[in-house]
Write a structure and sequence with these properties.
The chain is an alpha+beta fold and about 180 residues long. The protein has a domain at about 60-155. The chain has 7 helices and 6 strands, in the order ββαααββααββαα. The protein has helices at about 30-35, 35-40, 45-50, 65-85, 90-115, 130-150, 170-175; strands at about 1-5, 20-25, 50-55, 60, 120, 130. The strands form 3 sheets. It has a two-stranded antiparallel ribbon. Strands 3-4 form a two-stranded antiparallel ribbon. A hairpin with a 7-residue loop joins strand 5 and strand 6. About 5% of the residues are buried.
Length: about 180
């Protein structure tokens, strides 16, 4: 049994905060009811299916992804299969990339909501600071770029990967430089 504390905000100046305690009962929590043995029996011994939320052809959508990450997971699944990337072999990269794209989308929405990458601090000085979402957006995009480079999915790295055939036109252009 867990005990949680709620603090109410101040109602007026100088009044103390009221602290209430309440009991959280988690008897209906589906995570506590889940048993690995039963899930493995239902999945016919396949641990990926036992841990998965849905099945998508030969692939499974992992649990723990929020709706936005799941959307990007499905988009990447289609793109990866079209490019011939083994989504089972690169499963962790696939999930990580889906989460990174979801983080990028969230940061972009936050920056659209505030109307720019900077916000004005309080006071008459008129000092502007960079919003943390802009910093996270930059870090997320560089992480996405590094992952795509490691998979050989960028224009500069696609000739270095073993999956791609070298482009003869690109080689001729490189010789001219």
């Amino acid at each position: 049994m867990e005990v949680a504390t709620i603090e109410e905000s101040k109602r007026g100046r100088g009044r103390p905060r009221k602290v209430e305690q309440y009991t959280v009962r988690a008897k209906d929590d589906p995570i506590r009811k889940w048993r690995a043995e039963e899930a493995l029996k239902k999945a016919k011994g396949d641990p990926l299916v036992a841990l998965a939320e849905e099945r998508l052809g030969d692939n499974v959508i992992p649990k723990g992804l929020d709706a936005v990450s799941k959307k990007h997971y499905l988009i990447l699944y289609k793109e990866f299969t079209d490019l011939g990337i083994d989504v089972v072999r690169y499963r962790r990269v696939h999930v990580l990339l889906a989460k990174e794209y979801a983080m990028e989308e969230m940061c972009e929405k936050e920056l659209q909501r505030i109307g720019g990458i900077a916000y004005k601090t309080s006071g008459d000085a008129g000092i502007y600071k960079e919003h943390p979402a802009a910093k996270y957006l930059h870090a997320t995009r560089s992480m996405i770029l590094n992952i795509l480079k490691s998979l050989g999915l960028t224009p500069t790295s696609n000739s270095s990967g073993a999956r791609f055939e070298p482009d003869p036109e690109a080689e001729e252009f490189a010789r001219l430089q």
